[in-house]
């Protein structure tokens, strides 16, 4: 069992990690691809597609965590 306050703090930490993944990893990788001259164009496109899918998955995770935070905050329970 975990107390409400600690659970909310953990969920906000998870939310921060999801946002960092989107902002830092995705943006950095996509911007860097143009400098990878050793990669063929089709392989760069494949990498970009994979990174875009990861970004989309991360966006979904972020949305789920936001919904969990809202649920826990609105709940009358003090322990989960």
Describe it:
- The protein has 80 residues and is an all-alpha fold.
- Helices cover 80% and strands 0% of the residues.
- It has two helices and no strands.
- It has helices spanning 4-33, 41-74.
- Helix 1 packs antiparallel against helix 2 (41-74).
- The longest helix is centred in the C-terminal third of the chain and has 34 residues, at 41-74.
- It is rod-shaped.
- The N and C termini lie close together (5 Å).
Summarize the structure.
By secondary structure, the protein is mainly alpha-helical. The protein is 80% helix and 0% strand.
General shape? rod-shaped
> How far from one another are the termini?
5 Å
Provide the helix percentage. Answer: over 70%
Mean pLDDT: 91
Give Rg in angstroms. Answer: 18 Å
Report the sheet with the most strands, covering strand number, pairing sense and barrel closure: none
Give the DSSP E fraction (strand runs of 2 or more residues). Answer: under 5%
Decide which structural class fits the backbone: mainly alpha
| Low-confidence residue ranges | none
Order of helices and strands: HH
| Total DSSP helices | 2
DSSP summary, beta strand count: 0
